[in-house]
Amino acid sequence: MHVPPIPSLTTTDPELAGLIEQEALRQHDKLRMIASENYVSTAVLEASGTVLTNKYSEGYPGKRYYEGQQYIDQVETLAVERAKALFGVDHANVQPYSGSPANLAVYLAFLNPGDTVMGMALPMGGHLTHGWSVSATGKWFNSVRYNVARDTGRIDFDEVRDLARRERPKVIFAGGTAIPRTIDFPAFAEIAREVGAVLVADIAHIAGLIAGGAHPSPVGYADVITTTTHKTLRGPRGAMILSTAEHAAAVDKAVFPGLQGGPHNHTTAGIAVALREASQPGFSEYAQQVVANAKALATALAERGFDLISGGTDNHLILVDLTGKGIGGKPAAKALDRAGIELNYNTVPYDTRKPFDPSGIRLGTPALTTRGLTEAQMPQVAAWMDEAVTAALKEDEAALDLIAAEVRTLVTSYPIPGYTP
């Protein structure tokens, strides 16, 4: 059953309700290890499904373009104040619809078309919106990219500094989507100050770890911080931009009216709930456990001959090069999904294969940890992954189905918020 229940939806649109039921059962029955996914609490689900979705609220609290904002203003202010307190920042904007729009707002706030922006190259673990060629950010701006070292899989800051000195970017992005190691915000800040660039820390993947004290914070180093509100933060699908007081007006103007109309108030409410949950002592324990689980899983995978980029992980994320296993990332990911282990195929640094058929897989432990799994279960997860890859090479579908059954048996002891089969 769903919590909150969906009887009206079931009556009004049984076809859609059936699809939601199937998706809920899928989320329950699998080891969900996509590093950017998680489970929100029942409270976040409830807040996100309220009558707040009925209201238009263009503008900001106290400065709206529509009437009837007496309570909406309080909802948004609550989310803003909680974000400021949780991350220790001067200013927070909770209106961006998602992470990519939040990053686009940074461009609008600090750059003109053709200006130079510097970010990590996408194949190295960066994000599309950090200036990659197929993104508007790579088409409308002069994008320069830094890499990781071939031998270590880590950022070489001497090379980053040389690139910044040569190209003189106006904005430097720190962060990405497939970085398994601690991001050195002080090193980035030193380089940004030297060349007069605005440093933007994209913490979408690690926001919850930062809030829980399991990863160093960029506050005090980065001028602007962008983040999604899901992933490790366990909120709804939204985003925030955090900044110093100096940049507050530019950020707000870029979000509205620069890029967006009215905010999604039901999402803002869900964000407010998630921020309150992240401020509780138990969330710190959760964040620390996410990292402990990732480290334990990385160790178990390495022992089984998996080639981990950078040799391991410091956070929630593991990036694996499957070249040595004799299989591509895409067929491995599809086989693992059939085996009840959900992750994504991913390029690895200096990958010789194409992005849609890369050499690697990316996985993480946030959702497993939310369900209550600990280091004790990670060797078994690694064993299943190894067995599934071997089965994929042999095209042994029966073996994959057997693993999936074993996974279902395990997860029955670890319920998920919002649904009980």
UniProtKB/TrEMBL annotation:
GO terms for biological process: glycine biosynthetic process from serine; methylation; tetrahydrofolate interconversion. The record marks H230 as: Plays an important role in substrate specificity. It is found in: Cytoplasm. Gene3D superfamilies: Aspartate Aminotransferase, domain 1 (3.90.1150.10), Type I PLP-dependent aspartate aminotransferase-like (Major domain) (3.40.640.10). SUPFAM superfamilies: PLP-dependent transferases. Pfam families: SHMT. CDD domains: SHMT (cd00378). Residues 10-385 form the Serine hydroxymethyltransferase-like domain. One of its GO terms (molecular function) is protein homodimerization activity. The modification N6-(pyridoxal phosphate)lysine is found at K231. It catalyses: (6R)-5,10-methylene-5,6,7,8-tetrahydrofolate + glycine + H2O = (6S)-5,6,7,8-tetrahydrofolate + L-serine. Its cofactor is pyridoxal 5'-phosphate. Signal peptide: none annotated. InterPro entries: PyrdxlP-dep_Trfase, PyrdxlP-dep_Trfase_major, PyrdxlP-dep_Trfase_small, Ser_HO-MeTrfase, Ser_HO-MeTrfase-like, Ser_HO-MeTrfase_PLP_BS, SHMT-like_dom. GO terms for cellular component: cytosol. (6S)-5,6,7,8-tetrahydrofolate binds at L122, G126, H127, L128, E246. Pathway: One-carbon metabolism; tetrahydrofolate interconversion; Amino-acid biosynthesis; glycine biosynthesis; glycine from L-serine: step 1/1. Its EC number is 2.1.2.1. It comes from the Bacteria. Keywords: Amino-acid biosynthesis, Cytoplasm, Methyltransferase, One-carbon metabolism, Pyridoxal phosphate, Transferase. It is an enzyme of class 2 (transferase). Belongs to the SHMT family. Homodimer. Catalyzes the reversible interconversion of serine and glycine with tetrahydrofolate (THF) serving as the one-carbon carrier. This reaction serves as the major source of one-carbon groups required for the biosynthesis of purines, thymidylate, methionine, and other important biomolecules. Also exhibits THF-independent aldolase activity toward beta-hydroxyamino acids, producing glycine and aldehydes, via a retro-aldol mechanism. Thus, is able to catalyze the cleavage of L-allo-threonine. This is Serine hydroxymethyltransferase. It comes from Phytohabitans rumicis. The gene is glyA_1.
